[in-house]
Amino acid sequence: MKEFAKLIIDGKELTLPVIEGSEGEMAIDIRSLRQETGYITFDPGFGNTGTCKSTITYMNGEQGILRYRGIPIEQLAEYSSFVETAFLLIAGMLPTREELTRTSVYLNDFSLLHENMKGFYRNYPPKSHPMGILSAMINAMRSFYPELIDIDEDINKTYLRLISKIRTMAAMAYRISKGEKVVSPRPDLCYCANFLNMMFNNAVVPYRLDDDMVKALNIFWILHADHEQNCSTTAVRVVGSGKVNIYATISAGISALWGPLHGGANQAVINMLETIQKNGMTIKECIAKAKDKDDPFRLMGFGHRVYKTYDPRAKIMKKMTDVLLLKTKRKDPLLDIAKKLEEAALKDTYFKEKNLYPNVDFYAGILLRALGIPTNMFTVMFAIGRLPGWIAQWKEDVSDPETRLTRPRQIYTGNQIHDYIPIDKR
Ligand code: SDX
Question: Which of 4, 122, 132, 332 is 20 to 30 Å from 267 by CA-CA measure?
Fold first, then answer.
């Protein structure tokens, strides 16, 4: 166990404390560095920088390990439900039967939207991306549902209100975008079944709930529920550090998730596979383009900042997609293309040397297609799943005595001092 690290700068020796995590991860505590030496560290993208201590999720990128509150993701996917996993992440332990029942009752109680919120949707341009609508709607919740501070409500109800309403908002955005009547949530359906029913039920052809699809959606959202300090969770922690309300904080997380390098990758994967199919590109051509630095083509759904082996979530997603397509007797040509791409990439030196493997997004889109979810809703589906993680991380951050307002430093490389030049002398 190392207690400290020594740093020699300008002939001066500095002793810095070392922090060890419960899984043996080590960090050098540099909080005194600038004061002691005048130096800062430089780490764009924070790939080598820990921004917090956390008890929520453990990832080991070299071994492909992912655990929520110590429980392996494989076991949660096999035995748990999304609502139970959300409770685990936020409360820190699995619920008793009574706690789970009470949680489900609250999720039902909070599932309707304020009538005036529906006006938002109707005034959005028809082709608006659902992620932009969702981010705005979640932010608007602050105006419709004052939070804990205002009405001294149990903050857990605020969490459950968010988790319940994000699902209603997503389904409503989809129905209104299609010009279809909005379907209200049903108190007799569980969280995932309710979402599918609100998305697809209609008076002419009543939607038949399929247990395999409900199970697949539970697993999809369990796999997305948290992932330690990823881009959108970092956005939540950064925005939350300014002590703004939870709705604005979550809205920032949704905006950060939208990008194609992060949560938007599931939509980008399908767009990539459809382009390959439409243009009749060979697998060989795709792999060559992905490796070509001069070609903007990237193998979307491949590579990860932390996982340098197969993303454990991608393994589960791939298996579940096979099972669902088999059970629902559906074939998806994009799945065949995806599998051939994976097979070719995993044999290729470029991908092997750079430790590029399928990540959670590589098969996610194909599973969502099997559930009937439209492509432009894929990242919304990711956001619904990630919400419990964002809440748990925000809750941990605001109650951490070591948390400070996030305000990194920089190395200035701009102009040195020079005088203002009046416009007629330029
Ligand atoms: C998510 O952080 C999380 O936990 C995120 C997430 C979560 O649950 O929150 O797991 C969800 O965002 C998953 C990632 C989804 N994004 C994609 O699938 C987009 C495609 N992937 C890449 O853009 C990339 O792999 C990133 C952004 C995911 C990670 O990039 P890094 O860590 O910044 O690595 P890099 O871009 O520096 O790549 C290292 C090398 C580079 O080559 P060299 O410059 O060293 O020669 O690998 C190459 C890259 O060009 N590379 C790829 C590639 N990904 C990286 N080459 C081809 N195809 C790819 N997909």
Answer: 122
Q: How far is the CA of 293 from the centre of ligand 1 (A)?
A: 14
pTM: 0.95
DSSP letter assigned to residue 273: H
Would residue 11 count as lying in a domain?
yes
Q: What is the DSSP string of 308-373?
A: SS--HHHHHHHHHHHHHHHHTT---HHHHHHHHHHHHHHHSHHHHHTT--B-HHHHHHHHHHHTT-
Q: Atom 22, ligand 1: which residue's CA is nearest? A: 303
Distance 216 CA to ligand 1 centre (A): 26
Give me the mean pLDDT over the 125-129 stretch: 87
Overall domain count for the chain: 3
Residues 245 and 119 reside in one and the same domain: yes
Atom of ligand 1 nearest to the CA of 362: 18
CATH code at 17? 2.20.28
Mean pLDDT calculated for residue range 85-92 = 98
List Cβ<8 Å contacts ≥24 apart for 58-64.
58/23, 58/228, 59/227, 59/228, 59/306, 59/307, 60/23, 61/304, 61/306, 61/307, 61/308, 61/309, 62/308, 62/309, 63/309, 64/307, 64/309, 64/310, 64/311, 64/312
59 pocket-lining for ligand 1 (C-beta < 6 Å):
no
